[in-house]
Amino acid sequence: MPDGVILVDKPAGVTSHDVVAGVRRGLGRGVKVGHAGTLDPFATGLLLVLVGRATRVQRYLMALGKRYETVARLGFVSTTGDPEGEITPGRTPALSRLPTGTIRQRPPAYSAVKVGGQRAYKLARRGETVELREREVEVSRFELLWRDDDRAGFAIDCSSGTYVRSLIADLHDAYCLELRRTGIGPFDVADADPERIVPLDDALAFLPAVDLAPAEAKRAGHGVAIAGESDGPVRLRDEHGLIALAEPRGDGTLKPVVGFRG
Predict the structure, then answer these.
(1) Can you list the alpha helix ranges (DSSP code H) found in 29-81?
(2) Which residues contact 92 (CB under 8 A, 6 or more apart)?
(3) Residue 117, class by beta-carbon neighbours within 10 Å (0-12 exposed, 13-18 middle, 19+ buried)?
(4) Reported pTM
(5) Which residues pair with 71 in a beta bridge?
(6) Looking at 3, 9, 40, 82, which residue is catalytic?
(7) Is 40 annotated in the active site?
(8) Digit-coded pLDDT (tens) for 197-233
(9) CB distance 81 to 165 below 8 Å
(10) 30 confidence band (pLDDT: 50, 70, 90)
């Protein structure tokens, strides 16, 4: 079974866990399967499903920026920020200024953030008060695409960890009626194909590659640091393909942190 990433266009009404479970059943027992970033059940769009040793690089894929398109209902508030919550009327936002740049936001109470070892949404559904810390996120694009009465469409490009539901709720007053993830880093939902596994080296092509001679490749394969400079993580490769992901140590060396040999 090849190691790699499957680009899935998740439909509404299923969880990210459901998608992963379906892939696992299709590939057979014993195959490691995970994903790189949850989508809410009501949301649709791109989900990166990780197969085999691709599960080892989850954090690198999860750190990639995200692209979304959303339809908001204006002048109403949802307790969950989406159609599944309790809906009450509010005031209609002017939409004269849409926030971009570095902003602080508080994740919704109905989110997968862990509080004391438990998911926030589980606590919220039990009626418990959930206090979540604010976080800094980057929003490079927040564009009004169209508006029709109490509906408006937006395109949003943002950093990992951004909650689009919170962005829309912070317009005062609005909630996400529809949410679609259209891209993750270099990956686009238009390329989704549940039958194709993108090879691991290709899926990590957004990281610079360092090609090694045989002696260095052998050392890197055993987790030994090699000479090299980089501003961030890199792929270590030789004539046989991907050896490891390495990170700079600040002393002129690259230290393998995720290995793929042996």
Answers:
(1) 58-62
(2) 74, 75, 150, 173
(3) exposed
(4) 0.91
(5) 153, 178
(6) 40
(7) yes
(8) 999 999 999 999 999 999 999 999 999 999 999 999 9
(9) yes
(10) confident
